């Protein structure tokens, strides 16, 4: 049966199952329950929704959704038949019409009915029975049998197909296959999904907790029944060898036999054998060459398929190290490992805070403890990624992002469990997999566990985490100058890195003392005790309602992992947190803040010249760094941290920690100890902290060299990826540049070194584009007449440095803002000065206000936001945008000094061409090469070849100067042979087609009287149908009998009713009723001659227009130009807009004109040496 009938049956079956389970549930209500007086415990939490008011009430009566009390509903069969009937009526229809005998997958409605009744009864039993954690993973064999039993016999469907349809349900927890949900852009499909799920969910009965536990299963079963699941890739069997491969093997065997016979034969036999071997060798060479070419084609095809399937994953695979392996551990051993890691031995013992803990100040801002608001839930779901992996129930964020009624149903249930302090069982469960850390991983410690929680619980606790973070931030309970993790609005890694590096460099430059210790905690996320989290909640005075919710959540967290076909039993998380949990990270931050707050008071940090005291500890989650000025202070602080960590049942790993000791500006070897072990110095081994390397040299020279090596290796990987050049450019733009941006931001790299790196990158770009080495980088980095979607490495470097300056100068941390270090970027360019200049320019623009550019009316133009009213992220974006404008001005100045490649600077009357990635992917390599070469005049013309290699500079046809302009528009032989006429007619057909389409549309419009009087339109009123007609029709609006004549294919003659003349304009557009005529003359000149062509054609038809006007006609001449290299003149844009072609249609027509002219010129270029060739 199809998904429609299954969905409809499910809506009815939930009601039937509830009625069957009512008697059982009455006996299951405990006497001490607050709802013991009710007949049905489910009615206490049952939400009754009125479709007209969308109000939710509580009542002892149940109102069925969609009139389901009467037992009838609008049901739809797989054959398309639909009727308001009962399930029995649908069954009768299917039996008479035999709809289920056509091979449609899916169970019969009786089986689906029985299945849902069983699942509902099982749910009632689970409410009164105490089950062990392993019971959650037990698969109901009756459900599996119902899914496929009788399908082949009664419905005529293959049992294997029906079984595949139920694959998602048969998989264990954490192994559910992904549903093939439609894309986010498919609004109609999601509207249908939203309506179907809304009706199904409103029919659910039971407590709010039971509804939430069943919510994911209902959504997943619906999606699986309607859309199916993603099939796992099955390894293909051994491919049958081709005839060529068989022939190669045969020849190799024959060659070996001949070699053996040659060794045993005499001289006469050897000569014959050698001849045979030579013949075999030549055959093998040909066959192996052909086989190698076939394999290379296969690799190219496979690479393109993988790229277009997921470009970002393909790029990531190019740059990331290979990680593979199979865990060779049994299920029992794996479960014992997880049990030993996540079981807390000291759970029963109490955990106390240090007695010398500094007291907490007064709480001024109270935390909101009301149930989640609808706006909060919407914001959380909107911020979530639609592609995030789902949890054990298989429901992704997308099902809530695109189905608002389903999300609202979830929100209403969230409000109920919030008030009761209940966390549904499904929110406690997590499934996961083990991902290898390195190549050929086999041991448990070589795999990283990844846990996936159900998104419903993540949405709920995201609201809790946001409120808790706001509470901590507004009351200044977390010192953001020390700990920057978990609190929004801070660039923690950049600020900590910048301040730590600045203190080290200042100590070296000013000959001061400084001792820095980078501490690494041993399995910090997995070893933090839950008791420490509750102590932190109590210390920061988190309201009891919030603490109760989080504690109830952590009390029963269980997870399981799937390894191949094996699934572990449920494991209880008694210690540590899960990285995928939305509340755990903030709770961990609070626990670490308690430890740091209890330790940092024993010493003071470095004092600056102005008296500012810097903090002695800087932390980001579990990464802690101590910065003190004396050895005793360092040891005292380390000892206090060690004592408090030991009190919190956590410990430091000294072997992975590092120390930096600077005395009088010089790096020395000073020993510090923790846990009885010596902390190594960076003189022995460098360390990477928060994305930055610290080496014994205490400078970034090694990192600059490493960056150069990494970039060269990355370019080589892209080059060997079997992709065409245009796809390699995408890999460079979206794969390599983002990887380089972080080191360019963090490390002190001079701009001269970045320019050298860009030259290496430019060499690869020229190779992939297929252009000569002389082409300037302005061609692909600039935003001139031809704009490619590529950016400059130097520009990205400057924007990264300026962005870092803006982050430090605009930091919400007062210490960072007051002592922001100067970003070092070499002597040629200073980031601090560039930032200040950009800020002054933007502030000056605020004073001047918006000015008009061009001939637009007052107030027209691009709007912009005042710099003084912008937020910090907006200011950073505006400043980096100003830096990009400066870089573009520098490129334009460079292009102005290039006599040949900078010719486009003189094209004032043509429109710019912007090539998007989609358009670039659609162009073939030869066309990209021609487009760039023709635009910047670097094609191998005779004139250019004479400069490059000393060839003859004359034209091959007419012996004239062999320049690009001559070949494309000025060769006499090409003109006499009709080459240019052929190109002109190609462009004219495209232009005439667009005008004729608009002409037919206008002629079919209703006649509307057009008054010359402009009526006043009041506020809130519309201009009316007449104005809309004029806007749509443009110049066509005055008539409905327009006729179009085009000088293509046959000799055009101006109608005698207009004028008798020998002139032949390209297009004549006229209306006899209104006596209006337009003469349109198309020219395809070289882009430098667009203005001259316009004036020349206008002057040619001036007398004709005057004669026509004397005869009482309204005559107009409209010269139109389209450049030989595909750049459309502004006259074409004005003409099309004048006749009502605007918006997307206008852009489509202009692009078509550009493509036709460019392809025609490319064909002329390919056949530039042929005097005579056939015309179309």
Biggest pleated sheet: 5 strands, mixed
- Overall morphology: globular
Tell me the fraction of residues in β-strands, as a range: 5-15%
Number of strands: 24
Helix content: 40-55%
Evaluate the radius of gyration.
38 Å
Structural class: alpha+beta
In total, the number of domains comes to 5
In round numbers, the mean pLDDT is 83
- Low-pLDDT segments, ≥5 res: 14-70, 101-173
Report the total helices. Answer: 44
Distance between the termini: 56 Å
Biased composition (Basic and acidic residues): 156-173
InterPro entries: DNA/RNA_pol_sf, RT_dom
Protein name: Reverse transcriptase domain-containing protein
Domain Reverse transcriptase: 416-679
Structural features, described:
The chain is α+β, with helices and mostly antiparallel strands and 1176 residues long. It is 50% helix and 9% strand. It contains 44 helices and 24 strands. A hairpin with a 2-residue loop joins strand 11 and strand 12. The chain starts with a helix and ends in a 10-residue tail after the last helix. It holds the Pfam family RVT_1.
In summary, what is this structure?
By secondary structure, the chain is α+β, with helices and mostly antiparallel strands.
Secondary structure blueprint with pairings:
Elements: H1 3-20, H2 22-28, E1 48-49, E2 56-57, E3 73-76, E4 82-85, H3 87-97, H4 109-128, H5 141-148, H6 151-155, H7 159-165, H8 167-170, H9 187-202, H10 208-227, H11 243-264, H12 267-309, H13 311-319, H14 331-341, H15 374-383, H16 398-401, H17 404-420, H18 425-428, E5 429-436, E6 447-453, H19 455-474, H20 492-509, E7 514-519, H21 524-527, H22 530-539, H23 544-555, E8 558-563, E9 566-567, E10 571-572, H24 584-597, E11 617-620, E12 623-628, H25 631-647, E13 658-663, E14 666-668, E15 672-674, E16 677-679, E17 687-689, E18 692-694, H26 701-719, H27 725-746, H28 751-769, H29 778-781, E19 786-787, H30 793-809, H31 814-818, H32 831-848, H33 872-896, E20 913-914, H34 917-922, H35 925-935, H36 942-948, H37 964-970, H38 972-976, H39 979-1003, H40 1025-1033, E21 1043-1046, E22 1067-1071, E23 1076-1083, H41 1090-1100, H42 1102-1110, E24 1114-1121, H43 1130-1138, H44 1143-1166
Parallel strand pairs: 5-8, 19-20, 23-24
Antiparallel strand pairs: 1-2, 3-4, 5-6, 7-12, 7-13, 8-9, 8-10, 11-12, 13-14, 15-16, 17-18, 21-22, 22-23
Helix pairs in contact: 1-4, 1-9, 1-10, 4-5, 9-17, 10-17, 11-12, 12-13, 13-27, 15-19, 22-24, 26-27, 26-28, 27-28, 27-30, 28-30, 30-32, 30-33, 32-33, 39-44
């Amino acid at each position: 049966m199809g998904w429609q009938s299954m969905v409809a049956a499910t809506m009815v079956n939930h009601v039937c199952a509830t009625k069957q389970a009512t008697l059982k549930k009455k006996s299951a209500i405990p006497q001490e329950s607050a709802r013991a007086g009710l007949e049905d415990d489910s009615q206490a939490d049952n939400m009754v929704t009125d479709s007209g008011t969308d109000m939710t009430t509580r009542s002892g009566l149940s109102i069925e959704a969609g009139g389901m009390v009467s037992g009838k509903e609008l049901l739809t069969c797989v054959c398309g038949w639909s009727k308001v009937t009962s399930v029995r009526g649908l069954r009768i229809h299917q039996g008479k019409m035999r709809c289920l005998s056509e091979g449609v997958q899916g169970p019969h409605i009786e089986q689906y009915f029985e299945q849902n009744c069983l699942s509902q009864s099982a749910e009632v039993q689970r409410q009164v029975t105490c089950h062990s954690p392993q019971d959650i993973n037990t698969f109901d064999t009756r459900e599996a049998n119902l899914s496929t039993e009788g399908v082949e016999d009664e419905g005529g469907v293959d049992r294997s197909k029906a079984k595949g349809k139920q694959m998602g349900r048969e998989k264990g927890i954490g192994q559910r296959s992904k549903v093939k949900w439609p894309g986010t852009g498919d609004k109609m499909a999601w509207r249908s999904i939203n309506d179907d799920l809304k009706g199904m969910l409103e029919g659910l009965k039971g407590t709010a907790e039971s509804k939430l536990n069943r919510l994911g299963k209902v959504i997943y079963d619906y999606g699986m029944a309607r859309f199916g699941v993603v099939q796992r890739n099955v390894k293909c069997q051994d491919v049958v060898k081709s005839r060529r491969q068989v022939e190669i093997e045969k020849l190799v065997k024959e060659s070996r036999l001949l070699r053996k016979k040659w060794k045993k034969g005499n001289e006469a036999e050897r000569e014959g054998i050698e001849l045979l071997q030579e013949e075999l060798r030549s055959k093998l060479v040909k066959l192996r060459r052909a086989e190698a070419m076939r394999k290379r084609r296969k690799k190219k095809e496979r690479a393109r398929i993988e790229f277009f399937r997921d470009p970002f994953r393909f790029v990531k695979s190019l740059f990331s190290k290979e990680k593979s392996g199979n865990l060779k551990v049994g299920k029992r051993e794996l479960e014992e490992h997880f049990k030993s890691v996540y079981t807390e031995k000291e759970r029963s013992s109490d955990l106390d805070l240090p007695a010398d803990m500094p007291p907490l100040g007064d709480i001024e801002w109270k935390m909101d403890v009301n149930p989640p608001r609808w706006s909060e839930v919407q914001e959380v779901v909107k911020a979530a990624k639609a592609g995030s992996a789902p949890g054990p129930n298989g429901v992704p964020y997308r099902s809530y992002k695109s189905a608002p009624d389903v999300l609202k149903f979830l929100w209403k249930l969230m409000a109920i469990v919030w008030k009761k302090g209940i966390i549904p069982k499904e929110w406690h469960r997590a499934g996961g997999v083990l991902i290898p850390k390195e190549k050929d991983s086999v041991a448990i410690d070589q795999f990283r566990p990844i846990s996936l929680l159900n998104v419903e619980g993540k949405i709920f606790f995201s609201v809790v985490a946001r409120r808790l973070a706001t509470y901590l931030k507004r009351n200044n309970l977390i010192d953001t100058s020390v700990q920057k993790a978990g609190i929004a609005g801070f660039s923690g890694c950049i600020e900590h890195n910048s301040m730590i590096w600045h203190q080290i460099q200042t100590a070296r430059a000013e000959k001061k003392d400084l001792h820095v210790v980078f501490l690494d905690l041993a399995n910090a996320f997995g070893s933090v005790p839950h008791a420490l989290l509750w102590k932190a909640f109590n210390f920061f005075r988190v309201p009891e309602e919030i603490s109760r919710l989080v504690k109830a959540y952590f009390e029963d967290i269980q997870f399981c992992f799937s390894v191949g076909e094996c699934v572990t039993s449920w494991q209880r998380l008694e210690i540590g947190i899960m990285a995928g949990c939305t509340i755990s990270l903030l709770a961990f931050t609070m626990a670490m803040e308690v430890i740091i707050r209890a330790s940092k008071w024993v010493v003071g940090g470095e004092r600056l010249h102005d008296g500012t005291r810097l903090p002695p500890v800087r932390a980001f989650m579990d990464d802690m760094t101590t910065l003190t000025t004396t050895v005793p202070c360092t040891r005292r602080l380390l000892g206090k941290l060690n004592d408090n960590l030991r009190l919190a049942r956590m410990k430091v790993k000294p072997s992975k920690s590092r120390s930096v000791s600077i005395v009088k500006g010089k790096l020395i070897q000073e020993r510090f100890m923790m846990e009885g072990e010596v902390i190594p110095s960076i003189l022995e081994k460098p360390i990477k902290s928060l994305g930055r390397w610290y080496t014994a040299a205490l400078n970034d020279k090694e990192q600059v060299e490493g960056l150069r090596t990494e970039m060269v290796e990355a370019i080589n990987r892209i080059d060997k990826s079997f992709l065409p050049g245009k796809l390699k450019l995408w890999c460079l733009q979206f794969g390599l540049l983002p990887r380089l941006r972080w080191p360019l931001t963090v490390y002190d790299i001079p701009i001269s070194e970045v320019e050298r790196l860009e030259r290496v990158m430019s060499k690869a770009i020229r190779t992939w584009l297929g252009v000569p080495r002389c082409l300037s980088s302005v061609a692909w980095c600039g935003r001139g007449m031809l704009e490619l979607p590529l950016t400059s490495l130097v520009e990205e470097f400057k924007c990264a440095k300026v962005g870092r300056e803006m982050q430090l100068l605009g930091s919400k941390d007062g210490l960072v803002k007051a002592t922001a270090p100067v970003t070092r970027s070499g002597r040629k360019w200073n980031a601090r000065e560039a930032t200040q200049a950009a800020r002054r320019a933007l502030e000056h623009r605020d004073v001047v206000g918006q000015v008009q550019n061009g001939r637009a009316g007052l107030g027209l133009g691009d709007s912009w936001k005042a710099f003084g009213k912008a937020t910090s992220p907006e200011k950073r974006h505006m400043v980096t945008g100003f830096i990009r404008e400066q870089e573009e001005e520098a490129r334009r100045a460079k292009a102005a000094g290039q006599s040949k490649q900078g010719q486009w600077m003189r094209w004032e009357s043509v429109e710019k061409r912007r090539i998007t990635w989609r358009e670039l992917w659609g162009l073939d390599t030869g066309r990209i090469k021609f487009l760039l070469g023709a635009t910047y005049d670097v094609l191998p013309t005779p004139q250019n070849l004479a400069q490059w290699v000393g060839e003859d500079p004359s034209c091959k046809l007419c012996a004239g100067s062999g320049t690009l302009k001559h070949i494309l528009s000025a060769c006499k032989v090409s003109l006499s042979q009709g080459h240019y006429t052929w190109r002109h007619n190609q462009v004219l057909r495209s232009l005439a087609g667009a005008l004729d389409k608009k002409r037919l549309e206008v002629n079919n419009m209703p006649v509307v009287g057009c008054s010359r009087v402009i009526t006043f339109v009041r506020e809130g009123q519309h201009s009316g149908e007449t104005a809309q007609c004029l806007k749509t029709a443009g110049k066509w609006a005055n008539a409905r009998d327009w006729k179009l004549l085009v000088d293509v294919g046959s000799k055009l003659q101006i109608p005698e009713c207009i004028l008798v003349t020998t002139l032949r304009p390209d297009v004549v557009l006229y209306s006899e009723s209104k006596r209006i005529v337009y003469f349109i003359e198309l020219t395809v000149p070289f882009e430098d001659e667009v203005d001259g062509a316009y004036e020349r054609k206008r002057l040619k038809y001036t007398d004709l227009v005057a004669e026509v006007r004397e005869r009482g006609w309204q005559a107009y001449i409209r010269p139109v130009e389209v450049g030989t290299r595909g750049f459309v003149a502004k006259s074409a844009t004005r003409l099309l807009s004048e006749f009502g072609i605007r918006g997307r249609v206008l852009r489509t027509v202009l692009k078509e004109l550009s493509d036709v002219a460019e392809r025609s010129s490319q064909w002329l270029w390919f056949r530039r040496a042929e005097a005579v060739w056939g015309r179309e």
